[in-house]
Write a structure and sequence with these properties.
Elements lengths: L8 H4 L8 E4 L9 H10 L4 E4 L11 H5 L3 E6 L6 H9 L3 E4 L2 H13 L3 E4 L13 E4 L2 E7 L3 E12 L4 E2 L8 H4 L3 E12 L18 E4 L17
Parallel strand pairs: 1-2, 1-8, 2-3, 3-4, 8-10, 10-11
Antiparallel strand pairs: 5-7, 6-7, 8-9
Length: 233
């Protein structure tokens, strides 16, 4: 079995260059590849097109890349928690492509499965459908959406083995599971990296065939985006 392990985040991100398109897993701040994002900031990689459910917050996640003006275009479904994102979008500094959340997920999954395009009813009759092929199925109009084409997909998992098999924990599975294998090269950063054979095959969410590089991350902050607590009586 091929060993996908690399020694550190620097080795994992080799080959990422200015102007590339990168998928980044996570939902809000849940399950984001923190080490990889921090390394992209450090490398000062710029002119990036980033595909992610959102753009993080002002001082964490993809918000760090936005503050350094390293992102040229964001393809997202929700961007409401980032004031810098809003400022750059309204000023014209940042190109933004807003996509319905289900469509965003399916465009990732289609790329993962090698499906070039699909039809969805979401967005028909709106700006989302402008310039796209439409077709009627069972009396309902649908919009044709193309699968994403990304140079790299970067995901974060709870556990992984050296063959690239991944297990996600709870809701951190989110967009990570459909982005793994959806880029030309998939990089996985994990909290625990184990020898091959250590994971129960019945618990594996993503098989190693979809992953090209895997490394053990460090010092995950795992910030809570919106803390909600019950009022004590």
């Amino acid at each position: 079995m091929i060993n996908k392990k690399v020694n550190n985040v620097q080795e994992a991100l080799q080959g990422i260059e200015n102007g590339m398109t990168i998928m980044l897993g996570g939902f809000g701040l849940c399950g984001i590849p923190e080490n990889s994002i921090a390394e992209l900031v450090k490398k000062e990689t710029s002119e990036l097109t980033c595909i992610s459910n959102n753009a993080g917050v002002d001082d964490f996640g993809l918000g760090l890349l936005l503050h350094k003006r390293q992102i040229k275009k964001m393809i997202s479904s929700y961007v409401g928690e980032n004031a810098e994102f809003e400022r750059q979008m309204l000023s014209g500094e940042l190109d933004v492509e807003l996509t319905p959340q289900g469509t965003l997920a399916e465009k990732c999954r289609a790329a993962q499965a090698g499906i070039p395009a699909f039809f969805t009813p979401a967005g028909f009759g709106t700006e989302v459908a402008e310039g796209k092929e439409t077709r009627e199925f069972n009396g309902k109009m649908h919009v044709m959406e193309m699968a994403f084409k990304a140079d790299f997909a970067i995901v974060k998992a709870w556990k992984g083995d050296e063959a690239g098999n991944l297990i996600f924990k709870g809701t951190a599975r989110n967009f990570n599971s459909c982005m793994a294998g959806a880029g030309k090269i998939t990089i996985a950063e994990v909290e625990e990296l184990l020898p091959v054979g250590s994971l129960d095959p019945n618990e594996i969410h993503i098989p190693g065939i979809l992953v090209q590089r895997i490394f053990k991350g460090e010092k995950f902050e795992k910030r809570i985006e919106q803390r909600t607590v019950r009022i004590r009586k």
